[in-house]
Amino acid sequence: MARPVIELRGVAKLYGTGESLVRAVDGVDLVVERGDYVAVMGASGSGKSTLMNIIGCLDAPSRGRYLLDGVDVRRLDERRQAIIRNRKIGFVFQSFNLIPRTTATRNVELPMAYARVAAAERRQRALAALAQVGLSDRAGHLPSQLSGGQQQRVAIARAIATDPVLLLADEPTGALDSRSTDEVLALFDRLNAAGRTLVVITHEEEVAAHAKRVLRMQDGTVRSDRRAAAVAGPPPVLRAAG
Ligand SMILES: Nc1ncnc2c1ncn2[C@@H]1O[C@H](COP(=O)(O)OP(=O)(O)OP(=O)(O)O)[C@@H](O)[C@H]1O
Ligand SMILES: [Mg+2]
């Protein structure tokens, strides 16, 4: 069996002390296998972003163990964590986080520049990623010349151009209208069908409905963890529902 993309064991994140102690994440065990598509839901303050920051190596857990694609990230120094993060994870945020005065192509190239990919290859991979998200005809556009949905697709192209093992998205459709939301969800479906592992934090049931597995968080813990019945196409492994 291939190693899991994510393996969390007893992971906790505590803030403050004594009276003001907050258990933002409070003992989470989670294994995400390659090719899965997981939605993380839960009320405001339930710990979703804290968990995402840990999974994304943007923040260290106070307790517990985290293996990202088999690598124990807590054992790495900050520089190595940044390298692992850049190599293994593609991030998508609610607010796109594109650089304003820079073309779509250059935006997609940026993480590869940090990863020291040679310029010609960078350009080629950026254009291929833009083609994958259906934006070949917008490669030279600035973010301000693109719709919200198109900007998010550029951000997704940027996230996949490095060929990460994990695509990690925090409220990716939170700033989009329903048509752009549909475009992004269709794109996620295609990426997952092609084998990409996705973890998506969302408030929207519509988004979660596209995932294969839905986690619901409450007070820093995983309250439920359900695998959806297959809807479109056969799953890689047939499982009993429930
Ligand atoms: N830096 C911090 N210091 C202290 N408490 C924090 C810090 N960051 C988060 N918290 C607390 O941890 C808990 C979980 O926060 P988190 O941001 O993970 O929630 P969330 O599920 O992402 O909420 P939302 O849906 O509103 O984005 C909250 O009670 C929050 O107030
Ligand atoms: Mg949040």
Describe the structure.
- The chain is α/β, with parallel strands linked by helices and 242 residues long.
- The protein has a single domain (6-227), classed as Rossmann fold.
- Helices cover 32% and strands 26% of the residues.
- The chain is built from 7 helices and 10 strands.
- It has helices at residues 48-55, 78-88, 104-114, 119-132, 148-160, 178-193, 205-208; strands at 6-15, 22-32, 37-42, 63-68, 71-72, 89-93, 166-170, 197-201, 213-218, 221-227.
- A 6-stranded mixed β-sheet has the order 6-7-8-3-9-10, sandwiched between helices. A 4-stranded antiparallel β-sheet has the order 2-1-4-5, covered by helices on one side.
- Helix 3 (104-114) packs across helix 4 (119-132), helix 3 (104-114) runs parallel beside helix 5 and helix 5 (148-160) runs parallel beside helix 6.
- The longest helix is centred in the C-terminal third of the chain and has 16 residues, at 178-193.
- Bound molecules: adenosine-5'-triphosphate and magnesium ion.
- Magnesium ion is lined by residues 48-49.
The general outline is globular
Low-pLDDT segments = none
Order of helices and strands: EEEHEEHEHHHEHEHEE
Structural class category: alpha/beta
State the CATH architecture: 3-Layer(aba) Sandwich
Strand content: 25-35%
- CATH H-level superfamily: P-loop containing nucleotide triphosphate hydrolases
The CATH C-level name is Alpha Beta
**What is the overall number of helices?**
7
What ligands are attached or bound here? Answer: adenosine-5'-triphosphate, magnesium ion
And the CATH topology?
Rossmann fold
Sheet with the most strands? 6 strands, mixed
